[in-house]
Design a protein that fits this description.
The protein has 90 residues and is of the alpha+beta class. The chain has four helices and four strands. The strands form two sheets. Strands 1-4 form a two-stranded antiparallel ribbon.
């Protein structure tokens, strides 16, 4: 390859755009899954991943609570996949 072809290489947006698209896809997929859950119960089933109950660190002055819970369902995974496809198209 010559120098000109190196300059013409198309760059993708950075990881913050990917993270935003994945998050938006997960949220949209979760909303679709919850809306469709009465007619298709499988779409409403979710798998919780994270700390439950949250971890609590209690000092005499401050109390810290650390918690993270991610509920994944079929539609949220499909939404994240759609977000990734959109990222690849950018």
């Amino acid at each position: 390859m010559n120098v000109r072809s190196w300059l013409d290489v198309r760059r993708r947006p950075g990881w913050p755009i990917l993270l935003l698209l994945l998050l938006a896809g997960a949220v949209a997929g979760t909303m679709v899954g919850q809306a469709a859950a009465p007619s298709v119960p499988l779409l409403g089933e979710s798998i919780p991943i994270g700390l439950e109950p949250p971890f609590v660190l209690d000092t005499s002055v401050l109390r810290f609570t650390f918690g993270f819970l991610l509920r994944i369902n079929v539609c949220s995974v499909l939404g994240m996949a759609l977000g990734y496809v959109l990222y690849r198209k950018l």
